[in-house]
Amino acid sequence: MAPSSYQAPSRGDKTDKKTHSQSLESNLSNAQTTVAKLISGKGDAIFSVRANDNISHVVQVLSEKHIGALVVTDQNGALQGIISERDIVRRMAETPGQTLPQEVDALMTKNVVTCSPDDLLSDVLKKMTEGKFRHMPVVKNDRLCGMITIGDVVNFRLKEVEYEALRMKQMIVG
């Protein structure tokens, strides 16, 4: 016996009300998120130093900007390297008390792994995890156009998952 609140469907109740709980678009939308989408929300501010700057200047900039790495550029803004807090800490362990006057060129990573705005976030996250680094410059047509961190990628993805969960809840509740 049906509950008293049940009302049998009548003719035309579900006309043109098709639902698509799973589609190729919905299942792959987050996997297809690009670096450009992350940067559009984060901003494209890039903080840089020069190869001949000393480490004390780098430490000051990192502290003032509350960031963990800086790109190293030439006078034209072309990428020459990257220097991170980790680079500085490692050098401090090797040369205690002698690190701050050293030049950036001596500590920076010169073969920088970069990404483009069109790269998928999932691919970038994989590169960062495999390479064990937390910062990646974004380059388009040989020009710097941003910097992303592993934290940026994780936070962006968490927001997407929260939004996805909210959408699912709204679909279920109505």
TrEMBL record:
- Which keywords fit this entry according to its UniProt record? CBS domain, Isomerase
Name the gene for this chain.
kdsD_2
Please report the organism this UniProt entry assigns to the protein: Roseovarius albus
Protein name according to UniProt? Arabinose 5-phosphate isomerase KdsD
Query: Is Isomerase one of the keywords?
Result: yes
Q: Which InterPro entries match?
A: CBS_dom (IPR000644), CBS_dom_sf (IPR046342), CBSX3_CBS_dom (IPR044725), Diverse_CBS-Domain (IPR051257)
The record's region (Disordered) falls at 1-29
Q: What Pfam families would the database entry show?
A: CBS
Name all CBS domain ranges: 38-99, 108-164
Name the domain of life this protein comes from. Answer: Bacteria
Q: What is its EC number?
A: 5.3.1.13
MF annotations from Gene Ontology: arabinose-5-phosphate isomerase activity
